[in-house]
Design goal:
Elements: H1 4-7, H2 27-41, E1 55-57, E2 68-76, E3 83-89, E4 95-96, H3 102-115, E5 123-124, E6 141-142, H4 143-153, H5 156-166, H6 168-176, H7 189-196, H8 209-218, H9 221-236, H10 240-251, H11 258-264, E7 267-268, H12 270-282, H13 288-298, E8 311-321, E9 324-333, E10 338-346, H14 357-371
Parallel strand pairs: 1-3
Antiparallel strand pairs: 2-3, 2-10, 4-7, 5-6, 8-9, 9-10
Length: about 400
């Protein structure tokens, strides 16, 4: 029997940037902003893939990877933040994000540090209400320590404390501002597990969980947020150890349905999540102190050692769960290209998916090699990113 406390807190890595500038713009930065504004003006209500982007189908996935598989590997223009060429499989299918969503919490956190809403010196004790599944931080941990644990250790409790500190809606807003209509980032980890276990009260009754999850996933954003807040109150009333045992019973019962994963957990599509990553790494929003801190923390994540291409700058975050595996990240290669990769696997035949990580990266690397088969499109000039200082 695979226990939830074993699979829940693994994976790791990075991402970061916001949108506003408070200092005077250089002529180059003003030009870059003008180009971005022109590009954004042409976008529809929901961001969609541009059929003009040179795109190839992904190579066959390695033997052993099964279930629903999505992949998006692309070179992005650092000015327009649009893909210049891409290799894809099921880029518009929606998948649970698992712990890969945690990079969006870090991004929202850095925005609020910059605006003064959050102080890096703030300290938190871990209460029973806070504690999620798996290991958890010491009492008195500050914002930076929690952020490091969230990315490096994929610490669920640290994530939930920070997610609630910035606000459920603040993390969702990271996606909504980019018109990512199929990206849902509302719930802390303990909160979605509370729903899956059937402990969500009248909004998520155990006897009708499938339909309740569908109602939540398809509700308008304001209704989703209201449901998320009520569910989060339930989660904070739950004991993490008892919740873990309830999840084991759910996953091993005939009540388990992968559609409940998709409709309760935070979710996105390979294409949309790649857009989110490109924005966070390449958009000039965070001021230098926050950008450096973001980069330093995100370097603590996982994946760089499994990439074939040498990366001058790297950041990524992985996640795994019951029949779920995600690996996501950004790197700048030796040619100066800005590459984003998103791998998503749902309904895997493997219950415990972490051993599939190397196969996932073999597929990511094969897709990156296939990118070279597409004639390069000249990217807009932009200052090259430099590697962040070592932590």
């Amino acid at each position: 029997m695979i226990k939830s406390a074993l699979w829940l807190a693994t994976g790791a890595l990075l991402i970061g940037s916001a949108w506003f500038l408070t200092r005077p713009l250089s002529p180059h930065a003003a030009s870059v902003q003008a180009q971005r504004a022109e590009a954004e003006a042409a976008e529809p209500a929901c961001l969609r893939r541009d059929p003009a982007t040179p795109t190839l189908e992904a190579p066959e996935p390695p033997a052993g990877l099964g279930g629903r598989l999505g992949l998006y590997v692309a070179v992005f223009d650092p000015v327009t933040l649009r893909p210049l060429r891409a290799v894809v499989q099921d880029p518009d299918g929606q998948y649970p994000l698992a712990s890969s969503y945690k990079q969006a919490v870090l991004y929202a956190l850095m925005e609020q540090v910059q605006s003064g809403k959050v102080e890096l010196s703030e300290r938190f004790d871990v209460s029973e209400a806070d504690r999620s599944l798996g290991a958890y931080p010491y009492d008195g941990s500050n914002v930076v320590t929690l952020a490091e644990r969230m990315i490096h250790n994929s610490d669920n409790t640290a994530t939930d404390i920070l997610h609630r500190r910035v606000g459920l809606e603040a993390v969702q807003d990271v996606a909504d501002r980019l018109k990512l209509c199929h990206t849902r980032l509302l719930l802390p980890t303990k909160t979605w597990w509370t729903a899956q276990a059937g402990w969500g009260g009248p909004d998520f009754p155990q006897e009708d969980l499938l339909h309740a999850a569908e109602r939540y996933a398809t509700a308008p954003r304001e209704q989703q947020l209201a449901l998320a807040r009520r569910l989060d109150e339930r989660a904070r009333e739950s004991n993490a150890d008892r919740l873990s045992r309830a999840l084991d019973r759910y996953f091993e019962s005939d009540r388990y349905d992968p559609r409940i994963d998709l409709n309760t957990q935070n979710a996105s599509t390979p294409f949309e999540f790649a857009q989110l990553i490109a924005h966070e790494f390449l958009a000039p929003g965070l001021e230098e102190p926050q950008r450096q801190l973001f980069n330093r923390i995100m370097r603590l994540g996982f994946g760089q050692q499994l990439l074939e291409e040498k990366s001058l700058v790297f950041g990524g975050k992985g996640g795994n769960g019951w029949r779920i595996l995600t690996m996501t990240g950004y790197y700048q290669n030796a040619r100066g290209e800005h590459v984003v990769y998103v791998f998503m696997n749902h309904e895997s035949p493997q219950v415990y998916t972490l051993p599939e990580t190397r196969r996932a990266f073999r597929w990511i690397n094969a897709a990156a090699r296939r990118l070279a088969e597409i004639p390069p499109v000249q990217q807009s000039p932009a200052p090259p990113l430099s590697a962040p200082d070592a932590p």
